[in-house]
Each structure stands twice: as C-alpha cells, then as structure tokens.
Write a structure and sequence with these properties.
The protein is α/β, with parallel strands linked by helices and 543 residues long. The chain has helices spanning 2-19, 24-41, 65-74, 80-83, 114-133, 136-139, 149-153, 156-167, 195-201, 214-226, 265-275, 287-317, 319-328, 349-363, 381-384, 406-419, 433-446, 473-482, 500-512, and strands at 56-59, 143-148, 172-178, 205-210, 232-237, 367-371, 399-401, 423-429, 451-457, 493-495, 518-523.
C-alpha cells in the first residue's frame, strides 16, 4: 500500500514539474488516504461510471488535482500521456478538476470550501431518493469528500458543518487533510481553534488519526462506514510534501514552498530517487501497484453484481417506482399541467411564484425546494405547504430549511443536482444573491439546472433601507447570463416576469431548461396585469 501511495506522489510531483506550475505538496501528503479509499472502500462500476447507486468522491481543494488525476490513472480513467499534459491548453487535466463523470470526477473543484458542501448536498439527495423510491441502493451509497486547511477556514464550512450534523447525514464521510501548511504561512499563524471540538459540537462523529498511516486510515473508514446517526469527520495529520527532498538531499517535508510550486531541479530528482522512481522516466505505474488495482477491479465486479441484483429485485417488486426513477435520472423535463395553474390578477410575482411552486410540489415528486430562513417572505412556502421539511431521520418531505446561509444553501443545491435524479430550487431575497454569486458561477460552469428564486426585486423595497434594495444585482446576473459556457450557450437563463401570468410562463421555461441554471427575479409588491394586447402567447405554448 505504501508503494501505491508513493506511486501517486511520484506522478503528482512529476506532473507539476513538467507543467512548471502547480501544487505538489498537498497531493504528496494526501496520497495515502486516496489510495486506501479507492483500493479498498469506494464502490463504483468501472464499466458503468454513471451507475446511480455508486459511491461519490467530492474533492474540495481543486489545487490538489494532481493527486486525483494520478489516482484516477491507477484505475485507468486517465492515460500517462494525459497526466503529462497537466495545466496545458485543451488538455483533460486542467489545474483544477472539472466535472466529468465518465472519468470519475464528480464535481468541478473551484474556490476552496465549495466542494465539500456539494458533498453535503449529494448526501441529502441520496437520503431523499432512498425515502422517495425505497430503492435500497441509495441507503448503501456513501458520499466521501476531501477538505484541506483552507476549506476548513472558509466561512462556508460553518454552514456545511451545521447542516450535515443537524440532519444526521451518516452517509457522509469527510477526510480533513490537516497538514499545518498553507500557501504563504503555516496554519498556526492564522488559526488556533480546536477543529475536532467544533465539529463534535455540530453533531459529527470525529476520528483523529495519522493521515499517512494506511492501517489507521483503514480503521477510520471502517468505523465511519459503521456510523448510523452522524456524519463523520476523519482528521488526518498529514505531511505536506511527504517524501520530498531538497537539493542537498535533506528533508523538504512540511515546507510552505512545496505547496504551490514545482519541487525543481535537484530537489525534484532527489525526491524521485527517494520515492523509488527513475528521475529520467518518472511517469510509470509500478507493476505491483497495477496488481493492487487489478485485484480491486475483480472485487468490484462481485460487489456491483450483488448490488445490481438487489436493485433488479426492487425494480421487479416496484415497477412504477423503477420507471419513475429511470425518468428522474434521464434529465427529462417533468410533466406539469401548466394550464391548470390559476393566478390572481394584479398580484406580486413572488405570490404568483408560490402558486406555481404549490403545483410543482404536487406534480414533480423528485423536486427539492430550499430557503435561507425566508420561506414565508420569498414565498417558497407555496412548496412547503404541500410537503414538509427534512429533519434528522426523516427525508420523506421535499423542503430543505437551510437556515441563514445563502452560499451554503446554493452549494447544497448544486450538490443535489450533481448527485442526479433530483431537481433543486432555492430562494432568498434578490439583494442576497450577492452572497450566492460564487455558487451561481460554479453552477453555470458545470451547466447544472438549479433554479434560483430571488424575490424583493426593485427599488420598491427601499423602505428597508439601502442595504436591502437591489440596484446593481440584475446587471451582475445579466452579465453572467450572457457569458458563454463550454458549449457556446448562455451560461444561465435569467427571467424577470412582468406580471402574475408571466410568472407561470417563466417557471415553465425554467423547468424546461435542463442545460443551465435558471434565475427567477420576482417582486414583493403587487403588479398590474399587462394589457391583453401584450399577451401574445398562451402559457401552455410558451417557449
């Protein structure tokens, strides 16, 4: 096992060295954990990467891409030549990973902190699907995530820690790579908290280990898998730049310089020799490492076969639910009777949205709606009144009370969408979209159809004072809308209905948009109906 971890270290450091740019130190320190996870615990189907019941691994620190790419090369998702192209134009190995399920990458890893919150959302989605379908595969699914010191320091980690603990997401296991080093300083210069105690206070099961000891990692993961009521945080004390040597062949471990730059020159050569590689030919997967992963591939065949048989038996006993589940994961537009939605004339568009949400709650069984402690103001309570909120131990409802945490809520909804099979929507005041912009941007980059509901639009909410009056927000969102995504399309769909009837039409457009995020910008105040002469197209034909 140590040999396999060293192989990951060699590949990761060599990728950065060849690119002349990147982050080798963290990847070298985290190699032991990811090797144990993939060679012994992670359950997936190599022949069917999109298997709905697979375990999922979410990487938070995207700068540790060399670790992930190297690990995925060991399971034949990337070639050696592709590893050599790290950070090059047009390569499949960019400096931060981008979502690609077929290659084993579950999420785009952007700014620190968001990735592990995506995992929280995916864990919620799995719980929801287990309750909705009764399919035992979702109860057996485990969501793994990897976080660094930087992710722990990001404010969003508080929202994620609170929510996961409060909801008792025992299907969530997070590894914290606590290596005491960050880009420009040691962590002791900026943080002195008791992180373990903090997560215990949030209701997490916390296990503290040597993060470079395979046996301790194995025992911690086994204990985490057995946990029945709480999410688990495994705090692994890892060595930044494990195995690295300086030019004079002294230790280069635990050094800030290895965080964000190639090892360089003789330091790189000495490191390769220390780890058992040929500095002139480092891009090699060792034969004994190939054997480890060949053995795991055979184990996975048996594991997956048993799971498929279980799913098949469930489908045979529940044909309607099985058909429904297949439809949910096919990303098809849900069936909604839009003509039956009757709006009140001259109503506020937030109220009109509530009317639509009430219908969606009853007609779209795989939809989750969330609010950041504003459901009675942003009128997402139109959805809530037809269902009930998630609570610890009960995910039979479809409403996610996120608390006062707009960015966390948005990232959780992104994670719900990344999981698949579930439509996610979330609401707050338009002015608070400022808190959500980093997540909206990530949803746009990943082309995820999350629905953002933003109410209290326009100057008419000025009675609350300038802090709550959205002025520049629409221009910001419209700019994001017009930026082209990887497929040359608008990055998102932004809709601002002019009256109650248009609100129905806009919700129809949003639900039909399965390719990008959608935003609905809604009023607090009543709005007069447009004259009939301007209503050119009946809502049932609106496209």
């Amino acid at each position: 096992m140590n040999r396999a971890a060293d192989n990951i270290r060699i590949l990761a450091a060599s990728m950065v060295e060849k690119a002349k740019s990147g982050h080798p130190g963290g990847a070298m320190g985290g190699a032991d954990f990811i090797n144990v996870l993939y060679s012994e615990f992670l359950q997936y189907d190599p022949q069917n990467p999109k298997w709905v019941g697979r375990d999922r691994f979410f990487l938070d620190p995207g700068h540790m891409a060399p670790m992930l790419y190297s690990q995925l090369a060991l399971i034949e998702k990337f070639t050696i030549d592709e590893l050599k192209q790290l950070r090059q134009w047009g390569s499949p190995t960019p400096g931060h990973p981008e979502v690609d399920i077929m290659r084993g990458i579950e999420n785009t890893s952007g700014p620190l902190g968001q990735g592990h919150v995506f995992a929280v959302g995916a864990a919620i989605a799995a719980k929801f699907l287990a309750a909705r379908t009764g399919n035992p595969t979702f109860d057996k699914e485990t969501i793994y995530t990897y976080i660094s010191d930087g992710g722990i320091q990001e404010e969003i980690s508080q929202g994620a820690g609170r929510i996961a603990g409060h909801l008792g997401l025992n299907n969530l296991i997070m590894f914290y790579d606590s290596n005491d080093i960050q880009l420009s300083t040691k962590t002791k210069d900026v943080i002195s908290e008791d992180t373990a105690m903090k997560y215990r206070a949030w209701g997490w099961n916390v296990i503290e280990i040597n993060g470079n000891d395979c046996e301790q990692i194995r025992n911690a993961l086994t204990a985490a898998k057995a946990e029945e009521k709480r999410p688990t945080l495994i705090i692994g004390k890892c060595i930044m730049g494990k195995g690295a040597r300086k030019e004079d062949n002294s230790s280069y471990e635990c050094n800030c310089k290895t965080h964000g730059a190639p090892l360089g020159g003789d330091a790189y050569k000495n490191t390769m020799i220390n780890l058992g590689a040929n500095p002139e030919d480092p891009f090699v997967i060792f034969d004994d490492v190939k054997e480890i992963y060949a053995k795991r591939a055979e184990e996975l065949k048996n594991i997956v076969s048993a799971r498929y048989e279980e799913e098949k038996a469930w489908a045979a006993a529940n044909p309607e639910k099985a058909a429904m589940q297949n439809e949910w994961f096919s990303n098809t537009v849900p069936k909604v009777d839009w003509t039956a939605i009757q709006q009140k004339a001259n109503d506020a568009t937030r109220n009109a949205s509530a009317t639509v949400l009430s219908a969606l709650a009853q007609q779209v069984p795989n939809m989750i709606c969330a609010s950041a402690d504003l459901s009675n103001s942003d009128k997402t309570d139109g959805f809530l009144k037809k269902t009930h909120a998630f609570v610890n131990g009960d995910f039979s409802g479809a409403f996610f009370q996120a608390g006062v945490a707009e960015l966390t809520m948005a990232c959780c909804c992104i994670g719900i969408a990344l999981h698949g099979g579930v439509i996610a929507a979330c609401g707050t005041f338009f002015v608070f979209s400022d808190y959500m912009k980093p997540a909206v941007r990530m949803a746009a980059l990943m082309q995820l159809p999350v629905k953002f509901i933003w109410t209290h639009d326009a100057f008419r909410v000025g009675e609350d004072g300038p802090t709550h009056e959205p002025v520049e927000q629409e221009a910001q969102i419209r700019l994001m809308e017009k930026l082209k995504n990887h497929h040359g399309k608008n990055s998102m769909l932004v809709l601002r209905p002019a009256d109650a009837e248009e609100t129905t039409a806009c919700w129809k457009l949003a639900m039909e948009n399965t390719d990008t995020p959608s935003a609905l910008i809604l009023s607090r105040q009543n709005i007069n109906m447009l004259p009939c002469i301007f209503r050119r197209i009946p809502v049932q034909h609106f496209r």
